[in-house]
Design goal:
The structure is a single chain. This protein is mainly alpha-helical and 194 residues long. Helices cover 65% and strands 8% of the residues. Strands 1-2 form a two-stranded antiparallel ribbon. Helix 1 packs across helix 9. The longest helix has 22 residues, at 139-160.
Amino acid sequence: MSKSECNIFEIWEDYKASLYLFILKRVEDQDTAKDILQEVLLKSYQYCTKGKEVLYLKSWLYKIAQNTMIDHFKKAGKLESINLDLIDEENNPSLIGEASEYIRVLLKLLPEKYALPLQLYDLEDMEQKDIAEKLNLSLSNTKSRIQRGRVKLKERFLECCAVAFDENGEMISFDIKPYCKELQAEKQKLEKRY
C-alpha cells in the first residue's frame, strides 16, 4: 500500500463513525467518547499540518484513538479499568474489532446449518455438547458444522472485505468492498448511530 497524503478533513468523514464506536465500547460513556473523538481529530490534524504522509491511514487513526484513550484513563487515575487489548502492541485490536462488527451480518448469509452452530459456539460461548443437544445433532456432526461454518464465514469475509496482513499474519488494513451490499448497509447503520 502506498503512502497517503495526510489531509485529515478529507478522510475524517470516512472514519469518524467507526472510531466513535471503537472508543465508546471501551469508555462506555457517550460524552467521554465524543470528547476523546474530538481529541483524536485535533491530534491527527496537528500531525497533518506538518505536511507529513501516513502509511495505512486507518490503522494510524486507530492508534491515535488508542493512545488518546490510554492518556484519558491515566489522567483519570483509572488505567486499570481500560480494556487491556488497547495496550497490546503485538496486534491491532482496532481493526479486528471493526471487522468483527460485521461478523453477525456475514453469519446470516451462511446456510443456517452452519451459521447456527458457529454462532452458538463462537459468539455465545456454548459448549459443543450443549449445541449438539440443542440442535439434536451428534457431537461429531456439531464439530464438523462449526469447522465448515468457519471456513464458509472466512470465504464470505474475504469475498466482501479487502483485508491486508503483515508478515506476522496480523491484520493491518480492513475495508468493505463497494459491491458487498449487505455489509455496506450495516456500515451505514453503524454510522447513523453516531
